[in-house]
Amino acid sequence: MCHAQAAHANISLIAHQQALELRRVDDQWQVWSHERLIDSAPVVVLAGAADIQQFSQSADLPLKRIRGQITRLPQTQASTALRSVVCAEGYVAPARLGEHTLGASFDFNSTDLTPNLADHLDNLGLLREISEDLTSRLEAAALSPEQLQGRAAFRCTSPDYLPIVGPLADRKAFMQAYAALGKDARQVPDSACPVGWTACTSTAATVRAG
């Protein structure tokens, strides 16, 4: 689907670039990598998870990284009967390319993306909680946790675990409009949020509520 959408006549894919800075010039947003202009447009949408905090326009968003690790389990003849994702505290997915994906762990403190044994063991525990039948079908008891493969990445979350989507506020005008809240959080300002800019965000959508 992504390949099909990227092939649209109105979409230009610029790959292998590192966007480091946004500059507002006249009515355009310019995306810069060091001293190189990557592209410009009247509207910019920031959809890079917690990495969007590197931009001054979105640096104040209350985003947090949460490490998650998945475990890859080899399919068995019995496990091929699984046709849909099964979710509880964790999830296990149908086999793809000979492997099931199991996960995923939550670690609020680690910044190390190297897969580790402890999280593989936790994921196997999630599997047992999800389904004893699937645990048996996957022959999990016979697997050596030390030999399991997987990967880790960061989720992006907000304080209330809800997505952050929409126009970004003009920070200076925002601080002025809601300055009273810094002294008394019970105040009800009568000013609308001063968005004003055509910079938008869509992030923190990868962690379920609850």
TrEMBL record:
* Domain of life where this protein originates: Bacteria
Q: Where is the FAD dependent oxidoreductase domain?
A: 4-168
InterPro entries for the chain? FAD-dep_OxRdtase, tRNA_S-uridine_synth_MnmC_C
Print the keywords alphabetically: Cytoplasm, FAD, Flavoprotein, Methyltransferase, Multifunctional enzyme, Oxidoreductase, S-adenosyl-L-methionine, Transferase, tRNA processing
- Asked if the keyword tRNA processing belongs to this entry, the reply reads yes
Q: Which GO terms describe its molecular function?
A: methyltransferase activity; oxidoreductase activity, acting on the CH-NH group of donors
What Gene Ontology biological process does one annotation of this record name? tRNA processing
By its UniProt entry, which Pfam families does this protein fall under?
A: DAO
The protein's matches in NCBIfam families, at most eight in alphabetical order, are given as: MnmC_Cterm (TIGR03197)
What name appears for this protein in its UniProt entry?
A: Bifunctional tRNA (Mnm(5)s(2)U34)-methyltransferase/FAD-dependent cmnm(5)s(2)U34 oxidoreductase
Natural source organism:
Pseudomonas syringae pv. japonica str. M301072
